[in-house]
Design brief:
Blueprint: H1 13-24, E1 29-38, E2 41-50, E3 53-59, H2 62-86, E4 92-99, E5 106-113, E6 116-122, H3 125-143, E7 157-158, H4 159-164, H5 168-175, H6 185-196, E8 200-205, E9 214-220, E10 222-223, E11 226-232, H7 235-255
Parallel strand pairs: 7-10
Antiparallel strand pairs: 1-2, 2-3, 4-5, 5-6, 8-9, 9-11
């Protein structure tokens, strides 16, 4: 799956980046770098790392800062995906110049992709890299003759195909119990989805349960769409529980005739 670039009122950049990470096997990691300002006017800076990509974002709330960071990461990943799709070299970044006194440094970074190059400046290397990436995305969009870079449609699979499949992972799912303690159901679901050709998206629910547990929804791009709920003492536990519920549902549907 590739990161989406067109506006989607149903998904935030945080959700899209998380979905991308699930499918790539590398979840984004957010770190609060700075919190400052008055109580009535706070400012937060968060970084997000996914694979080898790290970006930062600033906002008046933690969620807003994460949103900006995720959006910046998606722009860089967008170029990587386009390069892979078209057989191009991945974009390269290089610091061309550092100028200014220690308290007011300015960095100039160049982004190169095949025969194209774009330069941008910023008060940090990360800011300059982000700006250069954004300029390269705009350049690519212009060359491709469209206002957005589009990606292949989301994978989907009919329930009937799951019932008729005799592939390894789904056969194991039919035969084996789903009650083994400490099982990694997220990994099991990932392997099954790759084998059967559907996608899995995890959506965190902001509200905790009455007992104080985290909540999550797992959405499977089956036809019809499958949505299962999970809870846990942490986000990862909730994801694992949702994956467990989804596997149980798939097991029932794939075993019925």
């Amino acid at each position: 799956m590739s990161p989406q670039t067109r506006p989607n009122p149903c998904k935030t950049p945080i959700q899209i980046l998380h979905e991308y990470g699930i499918n790539k096997g590398s979840l984004p990691v957010y770190v609060m770098e700075k919190a400052e300002g008055e109580a009535h006017h706070p400012s937060f800076v968060f970084s997000v790392t996914i694979g080898e990509v790290t970006c930062t974002g600033q906002g008046s709330s933690k969620k807003a800062a994460k949103h900006v960071a995720a959006e910046a990461a998606l722009k860089i990943l967008q170029m990587d995906e386009l390069a892979l799709q078209r057989g191009w070299h991945l974009p390269e970044y290089k610091v061309l110049m550092e100028a200014g006194p220690p308290h007011m440094r300015e960095f100039t970074v160049i982004c190169r992709m095949e025969s194209l190059s774009e330069k941008a400046a910023g008060n940090s290397k990360k800011v300059a890299k982000k700006a250069a990436a954004e300029k390269m995305v705009a350049r690519l969009q212009s060359l491709l003759g469209c206002s957005e870079i589009t990606w292949p449609p989301k994978l989907s699979v009919q329930m009937e195909n799951l019932r008729n499949s005799s592939a390894e992972k789904i056969s194991l799912l039919r035969r084996n119990p789903l009650s083994i303690p400490n099982s990694d159901y997220i990994q099991m679901m990932l392997e099954l989805s790759k084998e059967q050709g559907f996608e899995v998206t995890y959506f965190d629910i902001d509200e905790l349960t009455v007992s104080g547990q985290y909540q999550c929804l797992a959405e499977l791009s089956t036809c019809p769409v499958t949505v299962c709920h999970g809870t846990g003492i942490s986000c990862s536990n909730a994801h694992n529980d949702a994956a467990h519920s989804a596997l149980q549902y798939i097991k029932i549907m794939a075993s019925s005739k």
